[in-house]
Amino acid sequence: MDRHFRDQLRRLEEVQKYLGMPDRVYERLIHPQRSLTVSIPVEMDDGSIKTFTGYRVQYNTARGPAKGGIRYHPEVTLDEVTTFAALMTWKCAVVNIPFGGAKGGVRCDASKMSRRELERLTRRYTYELGFVIGPERDIPAPDMYTDEQIMAWIMDTYSMMKGYNVPGVVTGKPGFVGSSRARKMATARGLVAVLEETARVMSTPFEELKVAIIGFGKVGAGLAEELYPKGIRVVGCADSKGAIYNPCGLNIPELKKHKKETGSVKGFPDGTDLTAEELMAKEVDVLVPASISGQINSAVAEKLSARVIVEGANNPTTGDADQVLREKGVFLVPDILASAGGVVVSYFEWVQDLQRYFWQDKEVTERLRSIMKKAFRDVYTVHREKDVDMRTAAMIVGVGRVAEAVSSRGLFP
Ligand code: GLU
Fold first, then answer.
1. pLDDT tens across 254-312, in order?
2. Which residue, by CA, sits nearest to atom 4 of ligand 1?
3. Which residues line ligand 1 (CB under 6 A)?
4. Ligand 1 atom nearest 67 alpha carbon
């Protein structure tokens, strides 16, 4: 068992005592419901055949069909996918949408594959998963290194297998094949709603926040782009190659252009170059980790000076670091709450697909904001009432809802 899943189990054990959860329910929550490993033979562009390994884990479906992204990454393992599937289960419950949790992954380096190879890989992977996914069973979505096009291929392959169009089998699709408005910006917009609530409870004017973002992909750059027109100062941004810092606030549209031209945020003329670690040690109000998991380890946590951490990525903080941050009194808004905007709009996309009736951008964003704010308040109330940190509070809310569903449904057979 890897470190991530061990951390998950430790957190689960901690909330069991707060919830007074009976052992017979707890026992059902510490094991994934279904794990599938598949071989994916792919014809490469040079005519050779390469076999990749793919996974799909449905962690728990007591509250509804399994839901969660698919990542393409060279280091994907079954343990990692299981950890993220568990996180998705709690995440969907924290925002109270009627889904269980799942995650999928293929061990591959998408950056070294052509689009044609990725298409063949995706289609064969979808075929292999064909018996366990479906709009009523398990609905994948994008995650690290997967995008709208990959979702369209999943939708097409599954529909071909069925013989009719099934847009609701996957979310995060591109336009015209049953996508939702505002899905691409959903995680970022959810983070903005969470930042507003955080500022409110900390009695700090939202407009005065100084924010640093680690990760400049869909979530990180998306958040910077949402904050910039609101006049919020994004003083630092990091990507896998380096970081850039300007205490007066970075010009985000210019920074995006620079990243597009050079492949990194580093070297941006209107700022100082740093390493991501140096940026994380800078004095800012809010730090948003929005890239890989385990990025905030205990050494990084020791050096942090941010008052608030809002987790835009899944599982960015290790268990040890959590302990350090708790001792330092950092207010940490956990992934299963803060980064839930994506799956909330995925839920809207699924509902729209099932009804074949599509909403406007404004409706999607308003409903997203209202769900995120309600979830924040639910968690914050537990945080205050039980005098626990926000991660434990979010776990109490999320795991508590799943436990209730498990226990009222009973055990089959
Ligand atoms: N991959 C995203 C997450 O981790 C979205 C999942 C989904 O929309 O199903 O929350």
1. 999 999 999 999 999 999 999 999 999 999 999 999 998 889 999 999 999 999 999 99
2. 69
3. 67-69, 141, 143, 171, 314, 339, 342-343, 346
4. 9
Q: How many residues can be counted in the chain?
A: 413
The active-site residue out of 67, 103, 173, 259 is 103
Residue 138 contacts residue 64 (beta carbons within 8 Å): no
DSSP string of 164-192? S--GGG-SS--TTSS--TTSTTHHHHHHH
Residue 294's pLDDT is what? 86
Cis peptide, bond prior to residue 413, ω within 30 of zero? yes
Q: What are phi and psi of 267, to 5 degrees?
A: 85, 5
pTM score above 0.85: yes
- Give the residues across from 101 on adjacent strands: 60
- What SS3 state is found at 199? helix
241 is catalytic: no
The number of the ligand 1 atom at minimal distance from the alpha carbon of 140 is 9
> Hey, what are 329's tokens?
């009194």
Q: Which domains does the chain have, with CATH numbers?
A: 25-166 (3.40.50.10860), 186-338 (3.40.50.720)
Q: How buried is residue 165: exposed, middle or buried, by Cβ count under 10 Å (0-12/13-18/19+)?
A: middle
